[in-house]
Amino acid sequence: MKKHLKNMELFLKGSNFYKGLKITFAVLTPLVILYLLGFTALAPPIIMGAFLNAASDIPGSLKRKVNAILISIVLTMLITAIIFFLKPYFPFLLLAIAIITFLVSLLSVYGFRASLVSFSGLLSMVIAFAIEKETALEIFTHIGFMGVGGLWYLLVSFLFQKLAPKKEKNQLLSDTLLLIGDYLKLRARLLTKNKKREELMQQAFLLQTQINEKHETLREMLFTGRKRSGRSHYDEKQLLIFISTVNIFELIEAKHINYDEVDKLFGHNKQYLKAAKKLNKVMGNHLITLSELLIQNDKLPNKNALTKALKKADETISTYVEDVKLPKAREGALVLKNLYDYQKQLLEEIRSIRRVMTNVYDSSKVSLKRQDGSQFLTLQEYRLNVIIQNFSFNSTLFRHSLRFTVAMVFGFALGTALDIHNTYWILLSIIVIMRPNYGLTKERSKDRVIGTLIGAAIAIGIVLITQNVIVYGVLSIISLTLAFALIQQNYKSGAALITINIIFVYSLMHPDAFQVIQYRVIDTVIGAVIAVVANYTIWPSWETNNLKEVLLTALKKNKNYLLATQELYHDKNENQLTYKIARKEVFLAVSNLNAAFQRLTQDPKSKQKEFQLIYNLVTLNQTMVSAIAAIGSFIINHKTTPVSKEFDAIVLKISNTLQMSCDLLEGITPLKNTDPEAIEDAQEKLLKTYHELSLTRDENIQKGYTKISKKTLHHLQEAYLISNQLIWLKSLSESLEKGTMRYGEILNDTKN
């Protein structure tokens, strides 16, 4: 019960519920005011304008938000006018539906916010079918008041933003901390659950994608706001928390351990990993608690559990050495020590977040210059040539637009031919269900139908119990608010609440509520079937055939990240910014690859060609990022020795191998320009450095010098980590080359 009450509190204090209240206020206020003034007839178009243009009001910079809503207002007015004027002319109306659907849906090439503007335009087309306007004066009056409604919503959005300026950012930071906490706990399970690693890795891909999406939105909000007036005290706090979440995420990525090596080193002695695993879980749970406190504004929890778990992890290293004995225990001890150092750094970042949340922090920590911050933003290209470049069957969104257009035209023609009541509900179902990939469309269609049935059942029960219009009115307001609050979090629940809202609104105007329930369910099922069948049969877009560009980008960014890490090793003071930008870009590229793989898993089994090969390619790219991050993280957090020529030689080899993989995907004959013998020699010399340090340490122990100096320990750690990670990276790059060669052959066979 306590957990449910806490979840309820988090929901009611969160930004999603706040957005639901905002939209409800924007919709109801004109109705109430105009009713009191005796101009009720003017309310519907204003309400429609407010409702239609709320979709593009998503977290991000104020400038982009305002521009998106203004474009949405113009688009919805124009489309509504076209439909109104062409209604009497069926052939032209059908042609207009096709052209509008295709062109408006293609706006999605400009990114997520543009796809929501597109959704508003398509929704306005469908709603126009539900309204009857005969004369030009009526049409222009309706369109004009729709524009007023859209501007009214923009004003409401601005006012609500001023009333609670922290809410959106706090919610995003809270969501990010929650996801990172879950990710850290998942990494703990990966350490010892060797039989479930493939399943856990797939869960990790999803979490990585979600974390990167949150980070991208936060970058836009934190780095584009307050350019002239500077950051407020609270802006500084939010930026500090954000920077810590990025650092924590990189540290977690940096410890994507070579699990085969861990299994080999510890074998049946996995008990020595339990302390590290427990520490990860404790830190993960603490991050989840902090995520909740960002919303609740309660007191911070005691940190004793964190320090206790860290101490236990440190003690385990000594216990392992005492039990296994040196020199046999050295490699295992270094793995545990590197793991401990990384967890200690994680704990420092968690402590930084705690200090920020309790207002005890040093403002000088925020040293990111404005011009530096802008370099971390992913800029969306809005030029016309973006659409022109997508006018090709090679474009997934182009094929989706064509498929979507066919589905919409067919749905409208079918509804008209069969004289189906409220044909526009079929189109509405297609709009909200159909997505570029089959898996998501199928999932949304299932959730939509189930949600509609649940909503209809609840509404029927209430209608049977009471015939009170006041109850209908109250429940329609509540269901509207909750529907908007939940639609992004839980689509099934959102669909149920929207159905409840529609039925109660209809019940206020018409006595026969059961008729609307019946038509609502039938039309939803018809729309869902059309959407799923169209996605499967009309120019289908299977992810197996769409991965090439995403994979190519990930390979290129991995190469850039490797070279940026090499430059960091040479001079970390001069090259930190370049390194961090390369890190951000590769995280996004691999996140996109992970997302593509998730879509692949949703495709029908018969369409998941070479699933294991693709899974291996995704895993190899992800592992390579982590291996490079391990080197980068160590360089940043330790005083390192001068870079050896062997290090540079092996980095060049890995870089060339990655380039060969890129060439294979692009159909270019790769050139092998490294001497295998020279690379083997460089590899042996790197390992020799570690072995010489180990031998010196063994000799000192034999002489009685059992206590190791911090400098010697760091040199041992550096030699072990650099040599092992580089050799591992070389092996990973070679596996990637073989995998991309095989994948390229499959693509060529598919074309032929």
Word description of this protein:
The chain is mainly α and 752 residues long. The protein has four domains: 1-164, no CATH class; 166-374, Methane Monooxygenase Hydroxylase, Chain G, domain 1 (Up-down Bundle), CATH 1.20.58; 407-537, no CATH class; 543-751, Up-down Bundle (Methane Monooxygenase Hydroxylase, Chain G, domain 1). 79% of the residues lie in helices and 0% in strands. It has 28 helices and no strands. The chain has helices at 2-13, 15-37, 43-52, 62-86, 90-105, 112-128, 136-163, 167-192, 197-224, 233-254, 259-266, 274-296, 304-324, 330-357, 370-374, 384-389, 396-417, 424-433, 438-465, 469-486, 491-509, 513-537, 547-570, 572-602, 611-637, 645-666, 676-702, 710-751. Helix 6 runs antiparallel to helix 18 (424-433) and helix 21 packs antiparallel against helix 22. The protein starts with a helix and ends with a helix.
What's the topology here?
Blueprint: H1 2-13, H2 15-37, H3 43-52, H4 62-86, H5 90-105, H6 112-128, H7 136-163, H8 167-192, H9 197-224, H10 233-254, H11 259-266, H12 274-296, H13 304-324, H14 330-357, H15 370-374, H16 384-389, H17 396-417, H18 424-433, H19 438-465, H20 469-486, H21 491-509, H22 513-537, H23 547-570, H24 572-602, H25 611-637, H26 645-666, H27 676-702, H28 710-751
